[in-house]
């Protein structure tokens, strides 16, 4: 039985089909779950994809945090299930307090859409379990508010607890400590700004995102805990 991944869709989400296609290309099953639903239907992992949830009105991710589906996402995370937020999804996870810190506007106030190099900093997360620490991945970014920030005490904890999942080699957006992705303490909730689903085939310019998505599918297949 293939690993099942719930891909959450908010009004304004625009990367859900990219994620679903990449998951299915790698042998998984992707179920699109609209933001008004209250169940993840037994999926083994959840992805909150990129886009502009609720048009990013008020504040990026702030409205999405209150959508009914987020209660199911939070329950899934609390039960140890795999949760990954990509780009706008990362912003939503910080708004929901499933991850610490926040994403602010890029340095120079410029929208960024290009491929960057990121280094895998830990294998202790659901997104990097199959990746070699130190491996450099070429992944696309596509954001205006992607500079990660947090207070000094939080940064100390992230570093001490091995929770920085990816770092930029050449920081494109002013992110604190070159952070491109982080996890929660248990490693089952991960947020990142680069898009692994857009680097899932050589025809897309890079297949470096495959190892991250395979890690997620392995975590999804380890057990379905979602309601």
Sequence-ordered SSE layout with sheet pairings:
Blueprint (H helix, E strand, L loop, with lengths): L3 E6 L6 H10 L3 E6 L10 E4 L20 H10 L3 E5 L1 H8 L6 E3 L7 E9 L15 E8 L3 E3 L2 H9 L3 E5 L10 E5 L5 E4 L17 H12 L6
Question: What are the defining features of this structure?
Answer:
single chain, 227 residues, alpha/beta, Rossmann fold, nine-stranded mixed sheet, two-stranded antiparallel ribbon, 5 helices, 26% strand, globular
Question: Could you characterize what this model shows?
Answer:
The protein has 227 residues and is of the alpha/beta class. The chain has a single domain (4-221), classed as Class I glutamine amidotransferase (GATase) domain (Rossmann fold, 3-Layer(aba) Sandwich), CATH 3.40.50.880. The protein has 5 helices and 11 strands, in the order βαββαβαββββαβββα. The strands form 2 sheets. It has a 9-stranded mixed beta sheet with strand order 2-1-3-4-11-10-9-6-7, with helices on both faces. Strand 10 and strand 11 (189-192) form a beta hairpin. The chain is globular, with a radius of gyration of 16 Å. The two termini are 18 Å apart. The model has no long low-confidence stretch (mean pLDDT 94).
């Amino acid at each position: 039985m293939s690993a099942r991944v719930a891909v959450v869709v908010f009004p304004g989400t625009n990367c859900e089909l990219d994620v679903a296609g990449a998951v299915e290309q790698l042998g998984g099953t992707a179920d699109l779950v609209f933001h008004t639903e209250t169940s993840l239907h037994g999926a083994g992992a959840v992805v909150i994809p990129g886009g502009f949830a609720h048009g990013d009105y008020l504040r990026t991710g702030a409205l999405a945090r209150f959508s009914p589906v987020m209660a199911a996402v939070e329950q899934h995370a609390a039960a140890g299930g795999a949760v990954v937020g990509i780009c706008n999804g990362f912003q939503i996870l910080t708004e929901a307090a499933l991850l610490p810190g926040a994403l602010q506007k890029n340095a120079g106030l410029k929208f960024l859409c290009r491929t960057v190099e990121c280094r895998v900093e830990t294998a202790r997360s659901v997104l990097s379990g199959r990746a070699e620490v130190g491996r450099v991945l070429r992944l696309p970014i596509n954001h205006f508010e992607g500079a990660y920030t947090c207070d000094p005490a939080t940064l100390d904890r992230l570093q001490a607890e091995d929770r920085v999942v990816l770092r930029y080699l050449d920081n494109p957006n002013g992110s604190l400590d070159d952070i491109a992705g982080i996890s929660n303490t248990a490693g089952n909730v991960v947020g990142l700004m680069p898009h692994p689903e857009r680097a899932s085939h050589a025809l897309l310019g890079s297949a470096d995102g495959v190892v991250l998505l395979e890690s997620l599918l392995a975590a999804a297949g380890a057990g379905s805990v979602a309601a």
